[in-house]
């Protein structure tokens, strides 16, 4: 699914995007709020071999159970990836990353990031529309959720604006569920 305008595109990641996807993830992990937003450090991610980055991107691009969406903008003579969100499908009977039991087939949004110089222009909203739309199109998915740290007010405000409501608290994370009908 590609959503395009003259100078920007929201689309699924492609296999050949792996170097740009790697660089975008590393940029996300350097963000001042990264310790609240991501369960990985810059140092750990940066040490990962290129083969792991390729596999991560190729798996999403090849139609595996998870999808990474990216925001691509035209910059000078080329393009650059400036935002991302990943959708993980969670199956009943499995355990989620916080140790909770998954009761129903559901989608979980993770790894949300837009470069600071591109925030406020609708890219994050476009990424979320693509991710939620894809998730809701998957057979048997009964809900779309995400977790956000209780101290990450910037992200909480965006998620509420995007149609998510708080449905629970797990440790220092709010669980939010998509409720808007768009």
Automatic annotation (TrEMBL):
<dbReference type="Pfam" id="PF00583">
    <property type="entry name" value="Acetyltransf_1"/>
</dbReference>
<protein>
    <submittedName>
        <fullName>GNAT family N-acetyltransferase</fullName>
    </submittedName>
</protein>
<keyword id="KW-0012">Acyltransferase</keyword>
<keyword id="KW-0808">Transferase</keyword>
<dbReference type="InterPro" id="IPR000182">
    <property type="entry name" value="GNAT_dom"/>
</dbReference>
<dbReference type="InterPro" id="IPR016181">
    <property type="entry name" value="Acyl_CoA_acyltransferase"/>
</dbReference>
<dbReference type="InterPro" id="IPR050832">
    <property type="entry name" value="Bact_Acetyltransf"/>
</dbReference>
<dbReference type="GO" id="GO:0016747">
    <property type="term" value="F:acyltransferase activity, transferring groups other than amino-acyl groups"/>
</dbReference>
<feature type="domain" description="N-acetyltransferase">
    <location>
        <begin position="8"/>
        <end position="181"/>
    </location>
</feature>
């Amino acid at each position: 699914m590609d959503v395009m305008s003259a100078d920007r595109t929201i689309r699924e990641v492609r296999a050949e995007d792996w170097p740009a996807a790697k660089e975008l993830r590393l940029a996300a992990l350097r963000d001042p709020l990264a310790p609240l937003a991501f369960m990985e450090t810059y140092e750990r991610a940066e040490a990962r071999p290129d083969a792991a980055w390729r596999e991560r991107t190729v798996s999403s691009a090849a139609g595996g159970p998870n999808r990474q969406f990216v925001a691509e903008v035209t910059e000078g003579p080329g393009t650059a990836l400036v935002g991302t969100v990943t959708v993980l499908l969670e199956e009943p009977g499995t355990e989620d990353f916080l140790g909770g039991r998954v009761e129903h087939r559901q989608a979980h949004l993770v790894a949300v990031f837009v470069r600071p110089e591109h925030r406020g222009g609708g890219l994050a909203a476009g990424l979320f529309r693509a991710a939620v739309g894809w998730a809701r199109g998957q057979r048997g998915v009964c809900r779309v959720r995400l977790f956000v740290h209780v101290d990450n007010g910037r992200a909480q405000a965006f998620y509420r604006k995007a149609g998510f409501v708080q449905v629970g608290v797990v440790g220092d994370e709010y669980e939010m569920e998509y409720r808007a009908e768009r």
